[in-house]
Amino acid sequence: MYTLQFDINHCKTCPTGDCLVKCQFMSLDKTEAIKEMIKIAEGKDSPVLHDCVTCYGCEEYCKRGNHPFYLITEQRQAKGILTAPRAITRQWINIGEPRGKARLGQVKGKVLSFGFMPELLQLVRGRLFEDVMPSYVFGQEFFCNVVYIHFSNTSIIKERLPQVLENFRKLGVKEVVCMHDECYGAFASLAPAYGMEVPFRPIHYFEYLYGRLHDLAKELRPLRIKAAYQRPCSSRLSHDTHHFVRDILSIIGVELVERAYQDENALCCGDILGMNYGYELKNDVQSRNLDDMAEHDAEYCVFNCSACQNVLATKVAKRGIKPIHMIDLCKMAIGEKPSMEVS
Amino acid sequence: MIDIASQLAHIVGERFVSNNPEEAFFYARDPGLMPAHKPDYVVVPKTASEIQEILRLASRERIPVVPMGAGMSLTGLVIPLRGGIVIDMKRMNRILEVNEKARYVIVEGGTSHGALKAYLDKHCPRLRHSIPDSPATATVAANVMIHGQGRLTQQYGFNSDMVSGLEVVLPSGEICTIGSCALSPYWFSKGAPLPDLTGLFLGWFGATGIITKVALKLYPRKKMRDVEIFVTDRDDLVPDMVYELTHTEMVEDINIFAQPMPMIFKDNHHITLFITGDTDEELEFKRKMVWNCLDGFIKSKDGGFMSVPPVMKPTLLDMPQRSVSRFADVKKGGGFEYSGPIIPVETYPACTRKVMELGSKYDLAYSAMARVIGRNHAMMFGFAFTFNRADPQMMERTRKALEEGGEFALAAGGVFWKPTIDEQRLALEKMDATTRDLMKMIKENLDPLGIMNPGNWEVV
Q: The domain containing residue A37 runs over which residues?
C-alpha cells in the first residue's frame, strides 16, 4: 500500500505556518496554523478538515517539502469528511474509470499526454508540435486521476495511478509532455509523495512550449498585448513550473498585468467550488477574479487549463476580455491561427 | 356494392386516396411495439369540409375512421384496429393566425410542432409554444389530443391545458367550434367563462371527433436559455428537490433522468433544469435562485450541480431534444418505447427503482426519465427501454417490461398516459364506475355508430 511521505517535524519546526496562514479561504495566524497542521498529522480532527475548499494552494505555500494538501485529503477520507456531494464524486470516479482501451497516436520516445480532455487534441496542431506529433496518448488509461483530491479521495488515486504508470511503462516512452497541470502534478509531485516509481521524465507543456518558441525564434512576432493569466488549482502541485508563464509571455511580447490575484495569490476558476460548496462561494471567487482582470485592463485572459477555459471563457468575454489558451497564444506569436475561437 | 375508394377520391381527389398494399403496410403500424393492423383506405384531406364528407360517408357505410397526425405515440393509438379509413391530417398544415398581443396561434389540425416552431422563429421572435421532445413532425392537434407535454409544461401544465380553442368535426359530419371562438372572432379561451367542452375531445384519441383547428396559447420567448444539472444519489430526495425548485418559479422546464450509460450518468439521478432571461442579469438572478434553493442538499452532500461542459449544452438546449433517438439505438436496431404514466412526484423513487429492476430482470438497456408537470403537481415518468427490432425475443421482453412498469405505476397511484388498448382497459376497470358510465354516455352520444377510432376508450 502506498503511504504519503509526510514529516511532522517539518511542521513542528516551521518558522512561518505559511501552508495555512496564506490560505485564502481560512483565517489562521502562524501559531494556529502550525498547531492545526500538527493535529492533522497526528490523525486528530481539526476545523481545517471541515473548512478547506480544496484550492490546493497549501501545496505551494509549504516551502519545506511537505505535502499539506495531500495530508488534509488523506485525513478527510480517513474520517469520512466529504468535500463534494457523493453524487459528484461518484460521477467523476465513473468518468475516469479505465475502459480497457485507449487512443494512441504513433507513440515514440517522447509523447504528448492528454488525459481524457478531448479539447486538447485540437490544440496541438501546427509547427509548435511538429517535432512530437502525432505521438500522443489519450483516454482513461492515461488519466492521472489527481482530480480526486478535490473529492477527499486518495484511495482511488492509489488504486488507479500505479496502473496508469504501468501503461506508460509498457509503451516504453522516455519523456511524457503533460498537457495539463494535473497530469504533470501526478507524475512530478503526487506519485513521488506516495513512493510510486515514475518510469519516464514528465515534462510540463509550458517547458515544452518555451523550448519550441526558442526553436522557432525567427518566426516570433511580439503580440504587444496585455493579458491576465488564469492560474489553475492544479498548478499549485507543480509550482516549480509556474515561472514559465512569465518566461513564455515575455518572449512572445505579452505584458502580464500585475493584478491582485496573481501567482501565489491566484484565484481558481471556481468550478469545483460550485460543485462542492454551492453558488455563493463560486460566484464570489469568480466575481473577484474577473473584476480584478478587468480593473487591470487585461485585453486577453490566458488559460493554462482547458477546463478553466470552459468555465470562464464566456464570463471573461462578457467583460470585454478575449479568452485564449496559452497554446493558441503561442501559435499567434508565430503567425498561426488559434485552434479555438477567440471572441 | 359501393366503391368506397371512388367515393373517397371524389371527396379529396384521386391522388390523396390509396388502398394499395404499400400504403396499407405503412399505415398499419407505428414505431412502437403494438401489433400492426392494416387499414382498408388511406385518405389525405386538405380541408375540414372534406373531413365532414368523409365522416358522412363513413357513417353511412359504417366504416371505422382513424384520424392520424404523425403517428408518433408509440402506443398504437392510430393503428386501425378494425381496418377502415385512416385520415392522415398532414395536408392540413396551415398556420392560420397569430394574435401577437393576446399570445395565441390558430393552426390547422395537421400542423406539425416543427413547422409551428419554424414559423414563430421567423415571424414572431418574442413568442414561443410548448414544444414536446417528440420528433418535430409530431402534430399540434395530436399532441394536445394525447395530453402531451413540452418545454413549458412545468410552468403551464399539460400542452392540452394551453389550448385556447378547437374546431372539431363530429362523427355525424357536423362541424363545431369550442371555446370563445364559438361566439367571438377571438380564440382566447377553450372554455371559461363558458362550460369547457374541450374535455369531450381532448384525451379521447379521436374516438369522439376529429380536430381540424387548434388554438394554442403562446408565451414570452426570452432571448437567452441555459441549462443546469443537479445530481443526487438519493432517489428519495428527488421529490423534495423538485419541490424546492418549483417553489422558486424561476425554472422553464424540469426533466429528470437516471440511466446506467454513458458512464457520466451512472449511479445518479439528474435533475435537468432550464432557465431563461432577456438579459445576463435576469439569467444570473434565476441561476442564483435555483442554485441557492438547493443549497441545503449541497451542504448535506446529498446533491450538487455538475459542471455541464460546453460540448454537452447544445444537445441539452436543443428543442426538441434529439438525444432520445440516440438512446433508441443503444442496442442497435432502432427500437425505443416507453410507458409514460403520469404519477405523483412523491412516487418517483419507487418508479425509478422499478425501472432498474425491470432492466435487470429482462436484460434491457433502460432509462428512467421524467418531466415535471406544473408546480410539482405531477410528473410524466417514462419507463423507457431500447431494443433491437430484428430481435423478436428482445421485443417480447420489452413488451413485458413495459406492461409491468405501467401496472406498477397504476398501483402506485399513477394514471396511464397515452395508454395502449390494454392499458385503457385496465384504466377503465380501475376507474370509478360512475365516471366510466359518464364516459360511456359521452361516447355513445357523440359516436352512436362506434366508428371513431374503434377499440379506443370503449366502455363495455
A: 8-79
Containing A323, the helix (H) or strand (E) segment is: strand A322-325
* pLDDT (tens place) for every residue of chain B, 460 residues total: 579 999 999 999 999 999 999 999 999 999 888 999 999 999 999 999 999 999 999 999 999 999 999 999 999 999 999 999 999 999 999 999 999 999 999 999 999 999 999 999 999 999 999 999 999 999 999 999 999 999 999 999 999 999 999 999 999 999 999 999 999 999 999 999 999 999 999 999 999 999 999 999 999 999 999 999 999 999 999 999 999 999 999 999 999 999 998 999 999 999 999 999 999 999 999 999 999 999 999 999 999 999 998 889 999 999 988 777 677 777 777 888 888 999 999 999 999 999 999 999 999 999 999 999 999 999 999 999 999 989 999 999 999 999 999 999 999 999 999 999 999 999 999 999 999 999 999 999 999 999 999 999 998 7
Q: Is B304 in contact with A97 (Cβ distance < 8 A)?
A: no
Total tally of structural domains belonging to chain A: 3
Q: What is the SS3 string spanning A48-61? A: HHHHCCCCCHHHHH
Comparing CA positions, the residue from B306, B300, B412 lying closest to residue B350 is B412
* B371 within 8 A of B153, measured Cβ to Cβ: yes
What are the sequence ranges of the domains in chain B?
A: 4-88, 95-220, 224-411
Residue B346 to residue B352: CA distance in whole angstroms: 11
A238 and A195 both lie in a single domain: no
For A80, the closest chain B residue by CA position comes to B301
**A284 in contact with B, Cβ within 8 Å:** no
Cα–Cα nearest to B199, from B178, B181, B183:
B178
CA A205 to chain B, closest CA, distance in angstroms equals: 23
Under CATH, which number does the domain B224-411 receive? 3.40.462.10
Cα gap B221→B223, rounded to integer Å:
7
Task: Assign B271 to helix, strand or coil.
Answer: strand
The verdict on A165 and A240 lying in the same domain is no
In this structure, the answer to whether residues A133 and A23 fall within a common structural domain is no
d(CA A240, CA A243): 7
**A3 assigned to some structural domain:** no
Largest CA distance in chain B: 77
Interface A:B, Cβ pairs < 8 A: 73
Nearest CB among A94, A307, A318 relative to B263 is that of A94
What topology does CATH give the domain B95-220? 3.30.465
Do A123 and A184 sit in the same domain of this protein? yes
Query: What does residue B269 show for φ and ψ, rounded to 5 degrees?
Result: -110, 135
- Domain B4-88 classified CATH 3.55.40.20? no
Which of A209, A244, A269 is the last residue in one of the domains? A209
| A188 and A130 belong to one structural domain | yes
In this structure, the answer to whether residues A99 and A49 fall within a common structural domain is: no
Closest CA to A271 of A310, A228, A320: A310
Confirm whether A137 is domain-assigned. yes
Tell me the pTM.
0.95
Last residue in a domain, options A51, A79, A107: A79
CATH number, position A323: 3.40.50.1860
| Structural contact between residues B87 and B65, judged by C-beta atoms closer than 8 angstroms | yes
Q: Which of B238, B392, B430, B410 is nearest to B339 (CA)?
A: B410
**Mutant choice from B268, B284, B313 vs A, greatest count of A C-beta within 10 A:** B268
Task: Give me the residue from A87, A119, A279 closest to B233, CB to CB.
Answer: A87
